[in-house]
Write a structure and sequence with these properties.
Layout lengths: L11 E5 L6 H10 L3 E3 L11 E6 L2 E6 L29 H6 L5 E4 L6 H8 L3 E6 L2 H15 L2 H5 L6 E4 L2 H6 L7 E4 L15 H10 L5 H11 L3 E7 L11 E5 L2 E7 L2
This protein binds S-adenosylmethionine.
The site of S-adenosylmethionine has 22 residues, from helix 3, strand 6, helix 6 and helix 7.
Length: 261
Amino acid sequence: MTITQPGYVGKLAVLYDGHGDISPFQQLAERLAVPLRNSSEAGFDQHEAFFLSWRDGCLKLLDKELLKKGGMAVEIGPRQGEQRSWPAPKDGALAKALGRKTKTVVDATTGWGQDSLHIFRMGYELLCMERSPLMAVLLADGFKRLAQEEWMQRLQLEPPRLLVGNAVELLAGLPEPPDCIYLDPMFPPKRKKSALAKKSMVVLRDLLGDDEDKAGLFAAAMQATGKRVVVKSPDYAEPLGGKPSDSFHGKLLRYDVFLKN
Ligand SMILES: C[S@@+](CC[C@H](N)C(=O)[O-])C[C@H]1O[C@@H](n2cnc3c(N)ncnc32)[C@H](O)[C@@H]1O
């Protein structure tokens, strides 16, 4: 497995507010190899730009602006406009791109898990991959909360499985090719500061940087898939794998479909 220095080193700390058991905070800091700060100590100084802490039962990522307000966690609820039943109807651009006959999906770039959870709620069999240890701990916390949801327990559903590591290597080790591999790597923004970019994605870019190696990931996905690769791109970006077989358009974005011969 390739070991690279995570992009958040030097920018991130775990934050303990002086209440309750400190050991989970210590373990988290050790696991991510980042400092542990105690905000209740006199002389607490915000050395880092980002913090991880548990608030309201969720593991949250905070920046200076969010320190007093709340923070960002993996959102497990349905997105606006999404039906609350399970499985939710397979309609919309994402479902069309995944394909009518698709049953198994690998999301190789899970990030905040918003696309993954949408795919999961539509009833596909889903496996998630994520290389950032920071996003992996946030996702694991989100999936744990998902498992405790009343509807998940009633329907006896398990949350998606998460593999932590570089998808280029993880995809090569899959025992069975999935019907579809879904990719949503980080593209450079069109403008320096896009007013439309979601805060969670701006933070992700600040902490992890752009995914410069996405061409290699695309090649690995084409190799590992059974039937198709779907790439989500901003509408201004060139398709990642040359001319796609099909494209489905959403708001300011595109799902490019590449079929395996
Ligand atoms: C733009 S975000 C994905 C957002 C996600 N679709 C969502 O709905 O929240 C890209 C994520 O892919 C991850 N990533 C990029 N290349 C990867 C690779 N080769 N292997 C595993 N994860 C990768 C990054 O660490 C980042 O968290």
